[in-house]
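Private note to self, pasted from the team thread so I don't lose it. Backbone tokens:
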């Protein structure tokens, strides 16, 4: 083999090796991108799940607060009614005593 043929053969091998390395590099990069996208998707799903859970928890708290507020209002109005009835009873008693 002549020098030129050997050099040409070495050059062809180098070129082939470089192409293989480029193909490997591209495959690795695609793999990294795929892993990145999978992680991003998992993160988004987790955030969405947390948001849903937080929303449900807040809705439950809102319902509970509404129930407490309604109970408080009922108790307040019952108390006011009892006071009004007691005042009316005292008025009637006082009227009855003054008429005797």
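Design output:
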């Amino acid at each position: 083999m002549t020098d030129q043929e050997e050099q040409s053969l070495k050059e062809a091998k180098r070129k082939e090796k470089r192409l293989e390395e480029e193909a490997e590099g591209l495959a690795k990069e695609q793999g990294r991108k795929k892993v990145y996208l999978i992680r991003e998707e998992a993160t988004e799903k987790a955030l969405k799940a947390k948001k849903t859970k937080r929303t449900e928890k807040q809705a439950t708290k809102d319902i509970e607060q509404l129930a407490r507020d309604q109970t408080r209002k009922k108790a307040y109005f019952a108390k006011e009614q009892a006071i009004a009835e007691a005042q009316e009873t005292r008025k009637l008693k006082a009227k009855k005593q003054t008429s005797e």
